[in-house]
Amino acid sequence: MTMPSKRKRAMVGAVAVLALAVPAASAVAAEISGSRLPFSVATAGNKEDGDRWKGKSSGHAKACGDVPVNDTRTFSAYIYEDRSFRPDPKIASTSRSYRSGYGCGSYKGTSTSTKYYTQATWAGIPGSRAYGYVNAQN
């Protein structure tokens, strides 16, 4: 076997490993359906998502979000447990600078028999037409 064909075989093997590893890693952390909460950064505010979603079989979730603006202002993403007739406990959160790009906080435990929702708070940029969002990932 010549040297170029050994390199070619090694390259094909590396590409195959990468092709198998990327979908596997992507499947580990996925957006929870119904958890996305978009918002406009034209004015500061906070917003609670009206959609409630059940905890996933993974047993955990993390708060994530993004505001695609190059600015030093910040936003926060929260996940709350929906409790009837009692205060809703915050189970996960993250705070990020707008210029940081997409990111998440750490995983916190959830239950498949409990409902959750996302909430966002953000700083305003007067005149901006940008939109950000927060979501939950499992």
Descriptive overview:
The structure is a single chain. The chain has one helix at residues 3-28, and strands at residues 37-40, 45-48, 53-54, 60-66, 74-81, 90-97, 103-104, 108-109, 115-122, 131-137. By secondary structure, the protein is of the alpha+beta class. The strands form 2 sheets. Strands 1, 4, 7, 8 and 10 form a 5-stranded antiparallel sheet that branches. Strands 2, 3, 5, 6 and 9 form a 5-stranded antiparallel sheet that branches. Strand 5 (74-81) and strand 6 form a beta hairpin. The termini are far apart. Residues 12-27 have low confidence and may be disordered.
Write a concise synopsis of the structure shown.
This protein is of the alpha+beta class and 138 residues long. 19% of the residues lie in helices and 38% in strands.
Provide the descriptors you would attach to this structure in a database record.
138 residues, alpha+beta, five-stranded antiparallel sheet, 19% helix, 38% strand, globular
